[in-house]
């Protein structure tokens, strides 16, 4: 394995050692602030979208008619069964919610990656890095790579 300066290193421990020696201990935490800042919105968007989709389906006319037909056929439904989505709908709603969450917080992930790639000589904070990204590529630069990330997120959910 070759370290960023071209020196050969011995695996992960060697890279850690190299980073601490050349950039200091806190270089191991590059990009931590944007990662932490994206956690709460990510969860909020995911569970918010999932809950909206689930609630909309459970209160839909299609669902109400289905429950009514099952009761007329003499099938007894427990309360929990009336709140179930089914496996496929749960997976689909999870994938949609995951994609919405990813799209919402993706700009913070772009900033985090840029922070991690910085060398000590040109080190900037998260806000300055974000401004630099927008200056160089416009607002779309904060979404660079979003499509593959959404596809990956959708496949993980399914």
Plain-language structure description:
By secondary structure, the protein is mostly helical. The chain has seven helices and no strands. The longest helix is centred in the middle third of the chain and has 31 residues, at 87-117. It starts with 10 loop residues before the first helix and ends with a helix.
Quick structural overview:
The chain is an all-alpha fold and 158 residues long. The protein is 70% helix and 0% strand.
What descriptors fit this protein?
158 residues; 0% strand
Question: Secondary-structure map with pairings?
Answer:
Layout: H1 11-23, H2 32-58, H3 61-72, H4 79-82, H5 87-117, H6 126-137, H7 146-157
Helix pairs in contact: 2-5, 5-6, 5-7
What is the N-to-C succession of helices and strands?
Answer: HHHHHHH
Number of separate strands: 0
State the end-to-end distance. 35 Å
Q: Which value, in Å, is the CA radius of gyration? A: 23 Å
What helical percentage do the residues reach?
over 70%
Q: For the residues shown, what is the average pLDDT? A: 81
| Spans of at least 5 consecutive residues with low confidence | none
Strand content: under 5%
User: Count of DSSP helices?
Assistant: 7
Shape: elongated
Count of domain modules: 2
Summing up helix and strand content along with how strands pair, one would put the structural category as mainly alpha
The biggest beta sheet, please?
none
């Amino acid at each position: 394995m070759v370290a960023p300066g071209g020196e050969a290193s011995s695996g992960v421990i060697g890279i850690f050692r190299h980073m601490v020696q050349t950039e200091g201990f806190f270089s191991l935490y590059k990009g931590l602030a944007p990662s932490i800042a994206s956690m709460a919105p990510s969860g909020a968007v995911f569970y918010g979208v999932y809950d909206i989709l689930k609630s909309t389906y459970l209160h839909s006319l299609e669902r109400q008619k289905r429950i009514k037909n099952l009761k007329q056929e003499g099938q007894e439904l427990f309360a929990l069964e009336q709140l179930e989505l089914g496996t496929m709908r749960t997976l689909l709603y999870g994938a949609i919610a995951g994609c919405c969450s990813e799209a919402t917080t993706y700009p913070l992930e772009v900033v985090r990656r840029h922070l991690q790639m910085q060398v000590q000589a040109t080190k900037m904070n998260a806000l300055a890095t974000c401004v630099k990204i927008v200056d160089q590529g416009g607002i779309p630069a904060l979404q660079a790579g979003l499509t593959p990330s959404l596809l990956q997120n959708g496949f993980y959910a399914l």
